[in-house]
Here is the input.
Amino acid sequence: MDYVSNDIVEFGRNIPIPCNVTLLTDGAESTLEILEILRILPGKRLTAVARLNGKKTVAKLFFHPTAWKRKLNRELSGIEEFEKHKLATPKILSQHSIKGAGGVILIEYLETGISLAEYFADEKSVSSPDGERIWSLIFSMVCSCHNTGLWQGDMHLGNYMLFKEKLYLIDGGDVKRLAKPLGKSQRLKNIADFISQFPVSFDVQIELMLESYQVSYGEFSSADLAKVQPMVQNLRMQRLSHFEKKVFRSSSATSKVKTAKSLLVHDRLLDKNDLAQFLKNPDSYIKQEGMLKDGETTTVAVVNISGIPMILKRYNIVSPGQALRRLLDESRAHRCWRNSSMLDLLGIYTPHAHLFLEERLYWFFRRRSYLLTEKIPANNLNLQLKGADEAENDGPVNSSPHSTANGAINETKLVAAFADLFEIMHRYKISHGDMKATNFIFRNDRLYVLDLDGMRRHRFKWWSHRKSLQDMKRFEKNWTGSRYEQLFAPMINQYYENRRASNRD
Here is the structure.
């Protein structure tokens, strides 16, 4: 069956793949086969791998009932600007109308290309020699855009594609233009806006990024370059505030369902049938053999969904008084879902949150809540370190707590990971609230942060400083009297010195 624009609008996100769309070219009909969806804005536009007359292409479909022409023309105009200024971009192959109302642009398909968002998803790529070469390519291209008076209003790594060692711009829909090269302040703001969209771990490359830009520009002074890091941090704070409001809405990654009896937000990757089965009775998944904690306020268990072990937390109501207090308050699962997304945006590891569910009364009044997360295949840090101590005492003579063989913890990397965590939380005014060793896992040299319901992002610096100090005091308590006290001592002392210096400033 061939679809027209109204059909695509009605499908929303649930477009059947593969599917056919009827195109019109000079009055003649043809069939565009949609093979793979790359990006979708329901009711507005769709980017997909498609096939027309046997040839694969990237199809950008615009079908908003009233705004499709404006959006299509903006995309065309942006790509034409790239071509005009000899900036590498996939070629426009043809343009067509969609039967009903709408239009489509067919663009050259770089089949073996990889977006830079995918490339840098592997964190090892960030600081690898090849990664450094890619950063140079990116910021040389950004500078070339600025030199011609162009910049992207929504710059991100998904707008760039690496194909046969060459970098391509692949989104012309939000291109801004001036008749002259951008001034210093505009360049700095656009660069900072770009960098602010990366995880904090990318900040180690800021100097290299700016050096690559300077090769083609050369007019930034050291004072200009010193402004970038504070600008990046301020822009990230703004993005966090905006992002925290979006995590409870439907998006390309998540779905929201609100009824009089519940509020559900879940990862779209969850199998629909398994999800439906789970929602019928979440409590039935909690088995005694999988129980990790059967507390009065919290029940934690390993459950199996889609054949995958996951962690299910149920936050209980223990008394009528507590039930009354929590009617209008945020649930603990609600806070965990938001904080998990916040940490993900900052590049801090935490088990991926698949689902949060609140039982509600008349839409607004909260009752019990549930959180379903990824299960990291490792013990908590407290048990990991006890295991490392036992292995050291009972193992062969040449075993070492600094090795990583057989899952042993690399203590140097562990300390560095905690130092980075405290620094990021300080910079972005975040406190954890319970820095017990049991609330962390260290696996494959990654530090995972658990139990996020007490985590807060603070508005005021003085209050954030106070809560950060409380976090550090609780963290110190983990190691008092153990051999790890001396291991963490230099990091802890440096933390206090940095905070004293911060207060003096």
